[in-house]
Design brief:
The protein is built from 4 helices and 7 strands; from the N terminus they run βαααββββββα. With 173 residues, it is of the alpha+beta class. It is elongated. 51% of the residues lie in helices and 21% in strands. It has a 4-stranded antiparallel beta sheet with strand order 1-2-3-4. Strands 5-6-7 form a 3-stranded antiparallel beta sheet, with helices on one face. It folds into 2 domains: 82 residues, PH-domain like (Roll), CATH 2.30.29; 78 residues, no CATH class.
Length: 173
């Protein structure tokens, strides 16, 4: 199977956002930040005055509620902004542009205008999607970004999944 497609800056940025949003360590970090935000002001006041006022409790609970309501959205925007800044500084440029992906008998071949990279099927850890792109993870922080528009139809996409499952023993799709 051979797919020809282009990965845009937006595809690269959204991969970073999707990766960090679904990362277990990032989820733990967001939860920790929410807990620290709730506890920081009351603990600080208690250490300085020996007690916690009702106003401090209300402010802390309001902060916590706002974090629950808006935290994820703000985090996504911040990640998109930071990834976009990285692209503007030149990071990730090698992942953007035209390419060809070939599913060969014993490996996946990704062909860019400037280089060719072969990847063993055994290195595939998982496949995720954000609804517009597939991310075929070949490491904990690296993936092949494939826009869904690369597939002519649903049948071609299903054939792609079938071939990956057939070739990769440790992949559950």
């Amino acid at each position: 199977m051979k797919l020809n497609f282009a990965v845009s800056e937006e595809d690269y940025i959204q991969f970073n956002v999707c990766h960090y949003e679904n990362s277990g360590s990032v989820k733990r970090q967001r939860t920790l930040m929410a807990m620290l935000g709730v506890l920081a002001l009351p603990v600080w006041e208690y250490l300085n005055t020996g007690g916690v006022s009702m106003i401090t409790s209300v402010v802390s609970m309001t902060f916590w509620a706002m974090w629950l309501i808006f935290g994820r959205k703000l985090y996504r925007k911040a990640m998109a902004f930071l990834a976009g800044m990285q692209v503007k500084k030149g990071a990730g440029r090698e992942f953007i542009g035209e390419r060809t992906l070939e599913l060969l008998e014993d490996k996946i071949r990704m062909v860019w205008p400037q280089k060719t990279v072969d990847t063993s099927y055994e290195t595939i850890e998982k496949i995720t999607s954000d609804g517009k792109r597939l991310y075929v993870y070949t490491g904990s922080m690296s993936a092949l970004i494939i826009p869904l528009s690369a597939f002519a139809d649903e049948g071609e996409k299903q054939e792609f999944f079938r071939l990956l499952k057939e070739k990769s023993a440790n992949l559950d799709i």
